[in-house]
Amino acid sequence: MVKLICYNIEYCEGIQGRWYQYLNLWRIFFPPKGLDQKIVDALRKIKPDILALVEVDTGSIRARKKDEVQFFEQELGMKDFVEMIKYPFKGWLKFLRFIPILRKQANAIISKYKISNIKCHTLNKGAKRIVIEATIYCPKAVTLLLVHLALGRKTREKQLKELIKIVNSIKNNVILMGDFNTFNGSCEIKQLLKMTNLKDSARLHHHTISSTQPSCRPKRRLDYVLTSKKIKVKHYEVLKYPFSDHMPVFVEFDLR
Q: Domains of the chain, with CATH numbers?
């Protein structure tokens, strides 16, 4: 069994999603001390084999100049990782890559398995366009795709169409995961599921709660782990972690 967690940690700023907390702009520069360690301590209890992080700081003043991805890798005894700044390389938005703090905002995959065939896809629309592609062997090949989609619905629709093409171009079994920002509900991914070989296992158990945001009172499902149909998902759960405005998705799976 392989244990996977996908978690938007919101740069360890410690907001649980109450509207007034977003007004505390000081958290951008001075997040709660030791919050990353609290997340690590919680994750240790589950012992994930794969950890996908959305909104992780790779070494700005906010993270006290340490790469949070490397910190999680070392603290959890992982063996490999890939991290990518979330903003595009080309176009006018590339200037975000040169602004302090913003230039260290990334998404990452950390793994106990060796990561290979790393690719970076850049979607055509949206401020957050980077899609991380990475392959692991557990023991069969599985290609991981990590995304953080746009806030605007029309832009998300275009991004999802591009994701369909990316998923269908991959020969391996695929796990597509991340923060999809589907504020209008999971109906937004209906076409994605229809046009690919992916499945949504959120209803695996009748008691499963699929809402992930805000963590103080979850009412929206923004975070997903979608898998190829040959990947047998044994367990799907949204973990009740209070460390971010999102709650993480935990999945256990093996290959048929």
A: 2-255 (3.60.10.10)
